[in-house]
Amino acid sequence: MTRRTDVALTALAPATWGTTYLVTAELLPADRPLWAGAIRALPAGLLLLALTRRRPHGIWWARAALLGTLNIGAFFPLLFVAAYRLPGGTAAVLGAAQPLLVAVLTVALLRDRPGRPALLAAVAAPAGVALVVLRPDAGLDPLGVAAGLAGTAAMATGLVLTRRWGRPPGVGTLAATSWQLVAGGVLILPVAAAVEGAPPAPDGPALLGYAWLGLVGTALAYVLWFRGAGRLPVSQVSMLGALSPLTAAALGWLVLGQALGPIQLAGFAVAVAAMVLGQLPGRPAPAAVRAGSGQPAPGAVRPRSGRPAPGAVRARSGLLGRARISGRAGQPARSRRQSAGSVSIATPSGSAPGGSSAAAASGRVNRCAAAGPAA
């Protein structure tokens, strides 16, 4: 698939998450946010696990548990705490700050410095979202702000670690997503039971809402999100998260009749422009040899022409290259004296004559793997 297709499919995830506000307000039982998170994550994860029939192995038990905690188990409850203690607009702006946290974590964990367009977009996106969703009466509850920032940091860390670790060989996105959803859902379940009591008895609209959030807003959306995290730079993926509050605001205008004035429309334009700017290709990842160019990258060791690379053994061509001082009986003394001045060295396996290795003789340079995460 082309890069544009990858971006478009990844953007569907936050756009789908933007429907959560409308579905929760119109269809789900009130005051049961933790149960809503558990019902979203656990059944969707079990469904994907049944479809793929792949379980973690080795170190991936711990990695799946940590990623599930960051992306689901911690993020959902913290998000709901922020939503209950803060106006929706304030919570949305805190979530839109994720690209800034991703930029910091990308430098710390991936050793990759985002370019200026990505940094500018990371600042402009939350500013545009703030213009769309903030209202003059927006409050700042300290606990709510702390929960919102903690949830955003958890999701940002999970996104960067997802990029760093990739997936086990032979394991697809569906299976890896199922591990995280199950781990996160299992973590939320006892918290929901302790805080909110027994699960709610759903009616018809609630069943429809849970089905939408579980199948589309969680199973499908997280598969697309983690797929994009494995294919695209994390800075570009995180920029697409601004689509969630923008979609929620647009649905509020279309379905609930909420007003969007000139300031909100200007904020839309700023946020969309920031997302487009954030999708511009960044700098190429460092590598010892640029792919397809045949030239070493800056800082790579360049072998001198006509000389062997470091560690290579020079082999002499012709009869002298094959001659050895053997001291065999019957060899004339003059011949031995002539050969004593030039000691021949046997050509090692895999080396080519003429003072170069087989790879250098064929015009190829051994490429060093670039330091970075496995994708």
TrEMBL record:
<keyword id="KW-1133">Transmembrane helix</keyword>
<feature type="transmembrane region" description="Helical">
    <location>
        <begin position="142"/>
        <end position="162"/>
    </location>
</feature>
<dbReference type="Pfam" id="PF00892">
    <property type="entry name" value="EamA"/>
</dbReference>
<feature type="compositionally biased region" description="Polar residues">
    <location>
        <begin position="338"/>
        <end position="347"/>
    </location>
</feature>
<dbReference type="InterPro" id="IPR050638">
    <property type="entry name" value="AA-Vitamin_Transporters"/>
</dbReference>
<dbReference type="GO" id="GO:0016020">
    <property type="term" value="C:membrane"/>
</dbReference>
<feature type="compositionally biased region" description="Low complexity">
    <location>
        <begin position="348"/>
        <end position="363"/>
    </location>
</feature>
<feature type="transmembrane region" description="Helical">
    <location>
        <begin position="64"/>
        <end position="84"/>
    </location>
</feature>
<dbReference type="InterPro" id="IPR037185">
    <property type="entry name" value="EmrE-like"/>
</dbReference>
<keyword id="KW-0812">Transmembrane</keyword>
<feature type="transmembrane region" description="Helical">
    <location>
        <begin position="117"/>
        <end position="136"/>
    </location>
</feature>
<feature type="transmembrane region" description="Helical">
    <location>
        <begin position="90"/>
        <end position="110"/>
    </location>
</feature>
<comment type="similarity">
    <text>Belongs to the EamA transporter family.</text>
</comment>
<feature type="transmembrane region" description="Helical">
    <location>
        <begin position="207"/>
        <end position="225"/>
    </location>
</feature>
<dbReference type="InterPro" id="IPR000620">
    <property type="entry name" value="EamA_dom"/>
</dbReference>
<protein>
    <submittedName>
        <fullName>EamA family transporter</fullName>
    </submittedName>
</protein>
<feature type="transmembrane region" description="Helical">
    <location>
        <begin position="35"/>
        <end position="52"/>
    </location>
</feature>
<feature type="transmembrane region" description="Helical">
    <location>
        <begin position="174"/>
        <end position="195"/>
    </location>
</feature>
<feature type="region of interest" description="Disordered">
    <location>
        <begin position="287"/>
        <end position="375"/>
    </location>
</feature>
<keyword id="KW-0472">Membrane</keyword>
<feature type="domain" description="EamA">
    <location>
        <begin position="9"/>
        <end position="133"/>
    </location>
</feature>
<feature type="transmembrane region" description="Helical">
    <location>
        <begin position="237"/>
        <end position="256"/>
    </location>
</feature>
<feature type="domain" description="EamA">
    <location>
        <begin position="143"/>
        <end position="277"/>
    </location>
</feature>
